Amino acid sequence: MVSGVGPEKQLQELNITPVLKNDAVGQNMHDHIVFAVAYRVKTPTSSILLDDEKRWHEEDLFKENVTGMMTNPGPDFGGIVDIPSDLRNFSLSTKADLGSLPKDWPELIVVSFPLGHDYPDDGYNYASLMGVPMTSMSVGNITLNSTKMSDKPVVHPHWLTSTTDLEVSIASLKYMRRIFENPAMEPIIIGDEFAPGPEAATWAEVEHALKNSFLMFAEKITDNIINDQKSGKKKGHDELRTDL
């Protein structure tokens, strides 16, 4: 936009001479969020790396023998799933939005992670499931802050402003809770759910927890790739594998 390509009104407000007037520039921003369900656990995880002495010890193990926590300090596995049928008590508008996507469009990515964000260094081991809804309908925008390339733009992501995004995110969180509540997890879990916590029980409480704890997710697949250039329709991951 600094070069003069973009919405005419925004360019004129900054006294930039329009070279190509295009109202679509900076619009239609879709950004994925990520949120976690976490527990304290009895098995060692890389959350111990928050402790300096333990981290130094693990670094020595890695440098000397390529062993220890530093061999895999991040996610262990991930999966792409659709929201289970018994959690799909969606509104008509959400059903319509999801129905507009290709049949093979992924609804949710779940990744195991030893540690979420902002967890205490309290000597406990933590385990998290990180959820990334892939059906983002909230639309944001980006515009200029000034005529200087060195100045950061003004970004309005408008996360969770879509009813669809909110309903899918709440259903996703309930799904991840269900995984931790499986009897197979009992031997390693310590106490109640750490995050978002048992106090987030009602719809309103879960909504509040989501809106106050989610993070941004850096999506490597651009909107240009997932939208067909001719029809403008989104493509599912089967087609993406072919196109890429």
UniProtKB/TrEMBL annotation:
This is Glucose-methanol-choline oxidoreductase C-terminal domain-containing protein. Residues 138-202 form the Glucose-methanol-choline oxidoreductase C-terminal domain. Belongs to the GMC oxidoreductase family. GO terms for biological process: secondary metabolite biosynthetic process. InterPro entries: FAD/NAD-bd_sf (IPR036188), GMC_OxRdtase (IPR012132), GMC_OxRtase_C (IPR007867). It comes from Aspergillus kawachii (White koji mold). GO terms for molecular function: flavin adenine dinucleotide binding; oxidoreductase activity, acting on CH-OH group of donors.
